[in-house]
Amino acid sequence: MARAKRLNEMIMMVNRKKRFTVRELAQEFGISKRTILRDLQELSEMGVPLYSEAGPHGGYQVLNERILPPIAFSEDEAISIFFAIHALRHYISLPFDIEYESIIKKFYLNLSGDIRDTIDKMQNRVEFESIQQQEKIPFLKQLLDAAIQQDILIISYEASGKTSKRSIQPIGIYVKDGKWYCPSYCFFREDYRVFRCDRIKSVEPDENNDPINLSNINLKNRFSILNHYMETTELYVELTKKGVEKLESVNWPNIYLSKREDGSGFIKGIIAKHDINFLSSYFIAYGENAIIKEPIELIESTKEILTKVLNHYN
What's the pLDDT at 93? Predict the structure, then answer.
């Protein structure tokens, strides 16, 4: 590994850790302790506020706030970071206290002139297509903070034309198809639910309920863990070739697509029963390219929706 790259990675590593030893760094980077000591000396000269303690239990630590010194990026790295930030323009709400335009302006203006020229030439040649977010959502930061701190919030939630108060403990927030979602434990339902953030009209702390322990649940593992708590059922849907092509762009946990040689296929997996109404509307959009085989509750729900639609035209 080149020394400059190793120093950059070492800066990031020591900023993540409260304490560390020379032996830990030597094992991490596969180099000698003497080389690590020279690197630490250079980091100190670069402005990383390191403090050393002697003795058998000694080591190094970063003083005060773990502030990351300026890092030199290669041209390709700088351009890729610019376009990653540039993709955020589709979202008029973000769970941070800073505006997208401010971020992109500061980053762009601090690049060298030749890199800015390269980005200017590329902006109309590279695009990340995404569904435009339609309305501003003012509570994303409160929802994210509550998920991190395991706090409970009272939200005013609008669904099916009605507004109700709910006490929720958020797991996190994520964006999909231009909309923000907040999976949470709902104290009213005594179950886990996913709330659309644009339907949350107000947020305030809940001082009356005690938080439950959600420290082992996050956005990546929530489906495998929450399946133990939710009532589930098996899903089986036959798909035509067009149905397979449409579903290939969808990533659902616990649901797996199998393709046949002729291009058709089917999906099987486990779904939560409280998602049946959503899945009915979803598969109706596939038209004749999806035929639901299981569960019977999903078939009946789909029939009910289609009957209501047909009644509009009778």
Answer: 82
